[in-house]
């Protein structure tokens, strides 16, 4: 009686189920000890076997039903999600138009140094002598002196082209993604410097730690077909 | 100062230079792309390793083989692929995809979720045996075994359920991926982690020398699912290669306390009392479910703190009501951007509602599980031999060497 009533409930998962739905053969035990335990007489063996066979087939039924019950949601999962599966992968990337240069790209990446690097679109650059992204605010002289540079790792190279234009290029190996030059270029410049996640370095976490804390929601998953969002001329 | 930012993007402040010296603009080059093929290679290795683990645990019965497979999985899935994407975390991707129309789950993530579960349904927890890198690193430091007191063990075993509930809730509401964030071993795999994660992972490994596989037993949320699926497997690892002779030599050898003793030699319990107890627990199941739903439904405001939009809304409201200045980077970003406070508070209310619904389901799940665990404690078993607990056994094969039963091959001699 109790076997029938426990049929539906044995399917779900308990914390401390000692029995684990193991199906045992109905073989009389080999070394029965003590008098109050399961000892067999000839008549009892026959009856026990019949009962055990019924019991066993009930247990088998429960197991089969349970198997179907847990298999169905798993097999059904791709069907349910069928419109929301992509064969392409995704990568994380910064939308340079949303980024507000808070500086967390350097500190929140799980990697050290950060996988975020600064890019420079020369087509947008003004090639200024007084560059807002290269020179810190309040410099007395405009030259390549370390005391004048905004970049804490001196990752920007300044090269004279012709009067009065200077070319600025970024040494990716030195850049740590702090975004100070991006902020300076945005505040006083054309905004040609911008941050991007270097997909060669990025480990593609399931949830980007920088994206989690980005104050302007600038980092999101994009299809891995086009892995960068370059900043073009506006 | 802040107004500057709003105007900045609108125009080109400094016009493009007109070069006379024949200067050529350098090409705007981006760094290299990430190769997506690796995800599919991982999938192939996963299926291969799972098949090999099943063969080693069930057919060949080789503990050495499983140990070497663990070393390989640790090296490949752990240190080479840096532990991401893993099946444990894929639970969150599935949760996110099920409850958010805007997210498309990558096929590899879905398969990483499904395939170990299918293998568990067929062959038991062979994923845990030699494929999961988190399990492998813990398995390799299992030197001594210390058994915890039953009460402590019962309480700790319930933690993965709560962890599963909260992390599914958090992923489904687009709040956080908790499993990834608090994964203790991924920092070791990347050889790069904040010191808090190094300490947590290190402590867990040191504890694992004595309290074996602590993450697997007391934290792993995917293990809850593997536990269920493995219970219904037809083919599962057995301690004895043939018939159990009840010699009891394997009784205390499992480091994870997953061996169920035989019922031979056990005193018979009064069937009437047993039936009463069983029925009482069955009747109590819906009450536990309801209690769980009510408790967690009312606790839902606590969980909403996981969501960054809710935290931002609280901060902005605190500034408006109590004058505490909102100076976090998120608040500053919010003030610079275009969304109004009304929109933010509307989003907060919607998020609260999602959390409330999710918490009720979580409470139902936890209540039913707890009720059923009590029910199972009152069912009678008729085991005639020592068998592994199909839900708890990791198919590691440590018990093989303790069983004296050996299979003899009968060969045909040519007379």
Secondary structure topology:
The complex is a heterodimer of chains A (234) and B (415).
Chain A: H1 2-5, H2 42-80, E1 85-86, E2 90-94, H3 104-108, E3 116-120, E4 156-162, E5 165-170, H4 180-187, E6 193-197, H5 209-213, E7 219-223
Chain B: H1 2-8, H2 37-60, H3 63-80, H4 87-99, E1 105-106, H5 107-123, H6 126-130, H7 133-139, H8 150-157, H9 159-172, H10 178-181, H11 186-190, H12 195-210, H13 214-218, H14 221-231, E2 259-260, H15 271-303, H16 308-322, H17 329-336, H18 341-377, E3 387-388
Antiparallel strand pairs in B: 2-3
What does this structure look like?
The complex is a heterodimer of chains A (234) and B (415). By secondary structure, chain A is of the alpha+beta class. Chain A has two domains: 2-83, no CATH class; 90-223, no CATH class. Chain A has helices at 2-5, 42-80, 104-108, 180-187, 209-213, and strands at residues 85-86, 90-94, 116-120, 156-162, 165-170, 193-197, 219-223. Residues 1-42 of chain A have low confidence and may be disordered. Chain B has 415 residues and is mainly alpha-helical. Chain B has 18 helices and three strands. Chain B has a two-stranded antiparallel sheet. Chain B starts with a helix and ends in a 27-residue tail after the last strand. Mean pLDDT of chain B is 90; it is low at 1-10. At the A-B interface, α2, β1, β3, β5 and α5 of A face α1, α4, β1, α5 and α14 of B. β1 of chain A pairs parallel with β1 (105-106) of chain B, so a sheet runs across the interface.
